[in-house]
Automatic annotation (TrEMBL):
Subunit and interaction comment: Homodimer; disulfide-linked. Forms heterodimers with other 2-pore domain K(+) channel subunits, such as KCNK2 and KCNK10.
Organism from which the protein derives: Phodopus roborovskii (Roborovski's desert hamster)
Lineage, highest ranks first: Eukaryota, Metazoa, Chordata, Craniata, Vertebrata
Alphabetical UniProt keywords: Cell membrane, Cell projection, Disulfide bond, Glycoprotein, Ion channel, Ion transport, Membrane, Metal-binding, Potassium, Potassium channel, Potassium transport, Signal, Transmembrane, Transmembrane helix, Transport
Amino acid composition bias (Basic residues), ranges on this chain: 369-395
Membrane topology label: Multi-pass membrane protein
Originating gene: Kcnk4
Reaction(s) catalysed (UniProt annotation): Cs(+)(in) = Cs(+)(out); Rb(+)(in) = Rb(+)(out); K(+)(in) = K(+)(out)
Name of protein: Potassium channel subfamily K member 4
Membrane-spanning ranges: 88-107, 119-139, 170-191, 203-222, 234-257
Chain segments carrying region Disordered: 283-395
Extent of the signal sequence: 1-20
Ranges for domain Potassium channel: 86-143, 181-258
One GO process term, biological-process aspect: stabilization of membrane potential
Subcellular location: Cell membrane; Cell projection, Axon
GO MF entries: metal ion binding; outward rectifier potassium channel activity; potassium ion leak channel activity
Length: 395
């Protein structure tokens, strides 16, 4: 990620945090002030009704009650037989507490108070969180595959009805979200509302806070003494499947965003290529219409020096070496000059080889006719070999 993109994302997150802080402050601060005022009014009324109790003794008692409630004590239990009604650390509640550790929810309604428990929690979380992550990935994969397989049958029905494929994809995505929300959000909302005596808003608030692993702890299932001990373990299994569904949804959204990003890059590459081609075509047309105002082409280098005449029957090449275009009609050989050639045989051999090479490269180079020789022209001597066997060849 580029530095500019990272800084822009950081600024956006900070702006989001500040705006959230302002909204929460405006919504919750008046309620906090009202609760504090109610506490002070209740304290004054209690001291007025019980003049034998001093203000300091009442303050100490209130502080003790607050600390014990934070440690897991339940004020609804019987005062005479509280040990028999303790629900903080029975087997079901302890299982649910362990589940909130490895799921990283951490409601906070029950906290560890001993040093040994805190030390064990450190290693328990370090091992359990990665283990639960692997389980969550596997369950999310299977759950997402099952939902997509069921939705695939519905897509086949839509395709048989000749529904456009684009609309079928949209309908399948909507069905995937609706089925998951029905199974893991709406149904648990009604169940918790009935079992915990919560309102519908409180129940759906708890469901969303739990499945997003926020876990404030103001609403926790199974804290009432009348609940069965197996109630909280069942709630943990709901958390497992709900988190797996949310993970599957996030994976699907990530795959869709990557596919859209690749498609967008491909389309932008095609548009860039078309724009470059159009620009080149328009530039060529403008250059052709400009005519004399266009820059002169680079001067071609002649094959023969200007101080020496070209050999008879050999003309300048019609195009440069490596030119992609061939001349439509080769030039006719120039008429022979009266003067004799001064080129030695090596230069003629080089010209012949150059002509062959130019012809092979696509440049039409007329060659001198073989078998006919100008009168008064010197014979082309044969190239001497390394060793002469027998008599020397006649020139």
């Amino acid at each position: 990620m580029r530095s500019t993109t990272l800084l822009a994302l950081l600024a956006l997150v900070l702006l989001y945090l500040v705006s959230g802080a302002l909204v929460f402050q405006a919504l919750e601060q008046p309620h906090e002030q009202q609760v504090q005022k109610d506490l002070e009014d209740g304290r004054d009324k209690f001291l007025k009704d019980h003049p034998c109790v001093t203000q300091e003794n009442l303050r100490i008692f209130i502080k003790l009650v607050a600390e014990t409630l934070g440690g897991g004590a339940n004020p609804d239990t019987s005062w005479t037989n509280s040990s028999n009604h303790s629900t903080a650390w029975n087997l079901g509640s302890a299982f649910f507490f362990s589940g909130t550790i490895i799921t990283t929810i951490g409601y906070g309604n029950t906290a560890l108070q001993t040093d040994a428990g805190r030390l064990f929690c450190i290693f328990y979380a370090l091992v359990g969180i990665p283990l639960f992550g692997m389980l969550l990935a596997g369950v999310g994969d299977r759950l997402g595959s099952s939902l997509r397989r069921g939705i695939g049958h519905i897509e086949a029905i839509f395709l048989k009805w000749h529904v456009p494929p684009g609309l079928v994809r949209i309908l399948s995505a909507v069905l995937f979200l609706l089925i998951g929300c029905l199974l893991f959000v709406l149904t648990p909302t009604f169940v918790f509302s009935y079992l915990e005596d919560w309102s519908k808003l409180e129940a759906i608030y708890f469901v969303i806070v739990t499945l997003t692993t926020v876990g404030f702890g103001d609403y926790v299932p199974g804290t009432s003494p009348r609940q069965n001990s197996a109630y909280q373990p069942l709630a943990w299994f709901w958390i497992l499947f709900g988190l797996a569904y949310f993970a599957s949804v996030l994976t699907t959204i990530g795959n869709w965003l990557r596919a859209v990003s690749r498609r967008t890059r491909a389309e932008m590459g095609g548009l860039t290529a078309q724009a470059a081609s159009w620009t080149g075509t328009m530039t060529a047309r403008v250059t052709q219409r400009a005519g004399p105002s266009a820059p002169p082409p680079e001067k071609e280098q002649p094959l023969f020096p200007s101080s020496l005449p070209a050999p008879p029957g050999v003309t300048e090449p019609a195009c440069r070496p490596g030119s992609p275009e061939l001349p439509k009609k080769a030039k006719t050989p120039s008429p022979p000059t009266a003067s004799a050639l001064d080129y030695p045989s090596e230069n003629l051999a080089f010209i012949d080889e150059s002509s062959d090479t130019q012809s092979e490269r696509g440049c039409a180079l007329p060659r001198a006719p073989r078998g006919r020789r100008r009168p008064n022209a010197p014979r082309k001597p044969s190239r001497p070999s390394g060793r002469l066997r027998g008599k020397a060849r006649p020139v």
